[in-house]
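Appendix B. One record, verbatim.
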Amino acid sequence: MKLIRTMVALAGAAAVLTACGGSGSDAAKTLGITDPEIHFVHAIPGGPAVDFLVNGKAPGGQTDINYLGVTNFTNIGTGNTTVAYADTGTTTALASGNFSDVANGHEYTVIALPGLTSPGIGLIDDPFDKGLLSSDARVRAFNASANATNIDLYIVPAGTNINTVSPTMSGVQFSNAVPATGQDSLYLSGGTYVAIATAAGSKTPIFQSAGFSLANNADWLVTTVPIAGALSQLLPGQIHLLVAQGGNTGTPAIELTNTLTGQ
């Protein structure tokens, strides 16, 4: 549960953040005084355009979403909340789920993901407990690849020998996140990194990205997806990595390029 903080702490933090150029919005989320926010990520390669539904209705700007689409955060009410996605223009759910106790200050992510026999859904409740003075990036992994059901993910500087380091996020099981839903995101300093995925417990990469920049205060969800195509989705380890950025930028997810030969 998010810690209860006094209004005196809020006023003091706001003054410091203003002086340092920090985000007052992030501070308000950390203090649990903002409305809960939710957004949707379409992570089904080759999937149809869909509408995102909250309690049976599509919020503004949450319709006709194609693969790689990431919707802006929108405010929702607290309490029990049903979420789903449906073919655009309909309300017949392709997959649905439930957040039993939506709370102020939290961020919620809903992911359309390819299932074993039918479309699936991924749910993340992020309590957003970022330090009031922190400028670190927030990062979380999600596994939407039934053909890579348990992976380790390394977010490391280029040239790092992963045999000498532990995974940044380990044991990311199919249809699950690390850190798990209900836990705060992982924090990394801004900088230049590569992303490397391996089968859990292995040091042999099945995916290795080119270098990318992770900005301070970024809010990233790194999602594995199977490579598009029926055959590829059945072959072990045939995956891509998507980066979905949180916030209200309207930026589609980025599909990182696998630099491994033959992948």
